[in-house]
Amino acid sequence: MPEGVMKAWLESSHLNGGNIVYIEELYESYLDNSESVSAEWREIFGKLPKVEGSDVEYRHSAIRDEFKALAKQAQKQVVVSSDGDAKQVKVLQLINAFRFRGHQNANLDPLGLWQRDKVRDLQLSHHGLSENDFDKEFNVGSLAIGQDTMKLGELYKALKTTYCGSIGAEYMHITSTDEKRWLQQRLEAVQSKAKLSVEEKTEVLKGLIAADGLEKYLGAKFPGAKRFSLEGGDSLIPMLKELITRAGAAGTKEVVFGMAHRGRLNVLVNVMGKNPSKLFDEFGGKHDEALGSGDVKYHQGYSSDFVTPGGNVHLALAFNPSHLEIVNPVVIGSVRARLDRRDCTQGDLVLPVTIHGDSAIAGQGVVQETFNMSQARAFKVGGTVRIVVNNQVGFTTSRSDDTRSGEYCTEIAKMVQAPIIHVNGDDPEAVILATQIALDYRNEFKRDVVIDLVCYRRHGHNEADEPSATQPLMYKNVKKHPTPRQLYADKLTAEGSLPASKIDELTAYYRKLLDEGQCTVEQWRPMTQHSVDWTPYLGHDWDDAYDASMPIEKLKELAKAVSTYPEDHPVHSRVKKIYDDRKKMASGEKLLDWGFAENLAYATVVDDGKRVRITGQDAGRGTFFHRHAVLHNQEDASTYLPLQNVREGQGPFDVHDSVLSEVSVLAFEYGYTTAEPAGLTIWEAQFGDFANCAQVVFDQFISSGEQKWGRLCGLTMLLPHGYEGQGPEHSSARLERYLQLCADHNMQVCVPSTPAQVFNMLRRQVVRPMRRPLIVMSPKSLLRHPLAVSSLEELASGVFQNVIGETDDIDPKAVERVIFCSGKVYYELLEQRRKNEQNNIAIIRIEQLYPFPEQELQEALKDYQHVKQFVWCQEEPQNQGAWYCSQHHFRAAIPEGTYLTYAGRNASAAPAVGYMSVHVKEQQALVTQALTLD
């Protein structure tokens, strides 16, 4: 085409930048109905890239950028190939194919075992191109390679280097064009090659020497001992050190890690700076006598400081049980608490890093739950860097079709559109680049990002296993495959970066540090101050004195504050009635109900300058319509929280309706509480039995964390409990499970029966300096029971009564039977006794079942030493509830020569019946049984 004609065509072309809006509108019309545009436009749009195996076109955001690039080409009057627009479009299609599917042909497996078909989208012929076109110049569109046009041969080579080398990037599933363009810029501008100085390469090598050196040292010194070695995934060590250094340079002050077993000892010594002599002592059987049960080496946590160009960064490695992925929400909860304390809402100052196994991240549901939380208001932390140590073997199962259903173990991350950077663990420089991009993406967009470190494990699941029994072909390759340290050392020697003598010197120096039991991390620094100050809460016990009483006038002042809302904030009529009643309660005109007493407890905490945090699936209003801490404007849906408006300078009050999860949310709140001891943190189950789904958190953290790891926690859990005929799943919070977990004064289990009791129980959890978990069997029907009311004076006393003796005017000398009970069944017994006029039966409520209040119970029984008949009455079946776990406590408290009997439902496999008529019959029977004298 003559130059003058070409110029005229370009100036009038539909590809001119001034027509971009018109083109976008045409394309949207084409997507909705291809017949709505002309045949010429159908032909142009039909040549645009398609998703493999689908006829669905990209939406306009992606196409728009391609047209902009073409418009830019037109404006610059760049001459395209002689084949015209058709091949130019095909070239752009080729670029997009590499962005979408290059990772599927990337060199990711160090052992070369992956059998991956060639992706036809990445072949020239699939796009109507060939090597004959290599010398032809094409516009590269939005390819961030630093030039507008390239010869096809150079372009094809650059695409394969960028997307099919040691890094395979998955990011085109992200809908945000800004995020995709950012990632393209970072990858394409350097063709996925790190640019490291000799000093930086030396640091990487030091990390590999350390990773390899420690494992070999432990293998020689403690042969056969379990250590879940990192060998094969050695690049994790330089990766983590780069991550910390770069985070510190960006202003991060704390990094919190969570990881399971694989490589944990290596991370403790070579990243966290744990003295290797202490690790050797642990292998030798020495341990901290101060801990109760203690725990195995590869579950232990650690804290230290790490010097970076931006100053010292505090490191914390969370304690982790064998339930692998459960630590992830714990870590993120701890990070949220640290951010809240620093008043940092964007996540810049604290970085969460979670390290996963390949089978675990794909197989365990808490991973999905934690991803789902990542952008939710109550749980967001500005993004998490997630690292998968992908050794391609789940325990002994290496077949991917046994461990997952997707192509990669990281497929789950796509649910939140997290970019996934797969990287070959034998290419440590690619690992460093992947780390830099991942951290910078997290910091830029405040979203999760995944690094899939594809590696292998040199030994079996543990060092006593024989992996060849189940992976014979893999371990033939492993046995002859050089270590990452050796491969990288040879590379540096070959390129002239480091002489072999220097490498030998570095290796010998690391071995010397181990021999002398010295810290191996040059960047390690002693902690100048603990990130979380637990000092005021250490060394306290249950019976330590505390004063939670309040002046009645102060209580009235707070009551008025939490029962008031703006006049221009119209609320629902039912909520208005509740708040009108609360105003009467605040003035003393009416006794307090449960919801008001509970809210008033929170008011006293924030008034004292401390934080209250409540989460649960219906926490704002309360599942049973009682709390109403959040008032919804009926006209514009805005919200008002009286508890955030108690006074100027008050402590924060946060209440959030949580995601529909129990295990991840409870684990998050446990992590939060371990990093925030001063305030009141509460998780509320919608129904108490929902906590079943979070049992691993109760078992492995809440009940045993202090015994295993010396970790204190003041988390409060409200578990609605009580038999109201709502069926097997919505009656019992499984009280027996928590009592069975009780030992060593590890936690409290309470069943409060009055508003004053819940008020003083919650305040006690903050005012008393001891910090241990509190399990509350919270009520349903008692929230509005006419007898379950309290006065302001009862609240102001500040006393939670572990045992409540007889409250009716009954002559103790006339009593022939004493009933022990907990919870709402008390009111049924009370009402029936009054109806029967049975003044010879006393009822004693045990409001705290653990630690069992022996002295208080004996004090309540001092007037009944003549009584022979004692009964424990419960709603739960005999094999459930408190009977089996607590009857020895009841027997120890009653006078000698007397006996204790049981009144309640018969043993049952189910917690409750499903028919209201049967429920009523059973309930009446157990009340009658308890009130019937022998």
UniProtKB/TrEMBL annotation:
<dbReference type="Pfam" id="PF16078">
    <property type="entry name" value="2-oxogl_dehyd_N"/>
</dbReference>
<dbReference type="GO" id="GO:0006099">
    <property type="term" value="P:tricarboxylic acid cycle"/>
</dbReference>
<keyword id="KW-0786">Thiamine pyrophosphate</keyword>
<dbReference type="GO" id="GO:0004591">
    <property type="term" value="F:oxoglutarate dehydrogenase (succinyl-transferring) activity"/>
</dbReference>
<dbReference type="Pfam" id="PF00676">
    <property type="entry name" value="E1_dh"/>
</dbReference>
<dbReference type="InterPro" id="IPR011603">
    <property type="entry name" value="2oxoglutarate_DH_E1"/>
</dbReference>
<dbReference type="GO" id="GO:0030976">
    <property type="term" value="F:thiamine pyrophosphate binding"/>
</dbReference>
<dbReference type="InterPro" id="IPR031717">
    <property type="entry name" value="ODO-1/KGD_C"/>
</dbReference>
<protein>
    <recommendedName>
        <fullName>2-oxoglutarate dehydrogenase E1 component</fullName>
        <ecNumber>1.2.4.2</ecNumber>
    </recommendedName>
</protein>
<keyword id="KW-0560">Oxidoreductase</keyword>
<dbReference type="Pfam" id="PF16870">
    <property type="entry name" value="OxoGdeHyase_C"/>
</dbReference>
<dbReference type="GO" id="GO:0045252">
    <property type="term" value="C:oxoglutarate dehydrogenase complex"/>
</dbReference>
<dbReference type="GO" id="GO:0005829">
    <property type="term" value="C:cytosol"/>
</dbReference>
<dbReference type="InterPro" id="IPR042179">
    <property type="entry name" value="KGD_C_sf"/>
</dbReference>
<dbReference type="InterPro" id="IPR001017">
    <property type="entry name" value="DH_E1"/>
</dbReference>
<comment type="function">
    <text>E1 component of the 2-oxoglutarate dehydrogenase (OGDH) complex which catalyzes the decarboxylation of 2-oxoglutarate, the first step in the conversion of 2-oxoglutarate to succinyl-CoA and CO(2).</text>
</comment>
<dbReference type="InterPro" id="IPR029061">
    <property type="entry name" value="THDP-binding"/>
</dbReference>
<comment type="similarity">
    <text>Belongs to the alpha-ketoglutarate dehydrogenase family.</text>
</comment>
<dbReference type="InterPro" id="IPR032106">
    <property type="entry name" value="2-oxogl_dehyd_N"/>
</dbReference>
<dbReference type="InterPro" id="IPR005475">
    <property type="entry name" value="Transketolase-like_Pyr-bd"/>
</dbReference>
<dbReference type="Pfam" id="PF02779">
    <property type="entry name" value="Transket_pyr"/>
</dbReference>
<feature type="domain" description="Transketolase-like pyrimidine-binding">
    <location>
        <begin position="592"/>
        <end position="785"/>
    </location>
</feature>
